[in-house]
Design brief:
Strand content: under 5%
Mean pLDDT: 81
Radius of gyration: 21 Å
Largest sheet: none
Shape: elongated
Low-confidence stretches: none
Distance between the termini: 46 Å
Order of helices and strands: HH
Oligomer: single chain
Structural class: mainly alpha
Number of helices: 2
């Protein structure tokens, strides 16, 4: 079965969409270097992990 030009149109549409949303050009990343973004993201992850830990400070083990 042939799909005509549907595949080509979808590919072009996706490339246009991806060009708008490249990681370095998103609004939250404007004006930041790669190192600054890495530091910001690491700080956010540490904050999330500290919130997730129970108050007594014990590390929970995953169910495996």
């Amino acid at each position: 079965m042939t799909r005509g030009n549907q595949r080509d149109l979808a590919r072009a549409k996706n490339m246009k969409k991806a060009a708008k949303k490249s990681a370095a050009e998103q609004e939250s990343n404007k004006g930041l270097t790669l190192e600054q973004r890495k530091q910001r993201d690491a700080d956010r992850m540490r904050e999330k992990q500290s919130k997730k830990q129970p108050a007594d400070g014990k590390v929970q083990q995953g169910a495996s």
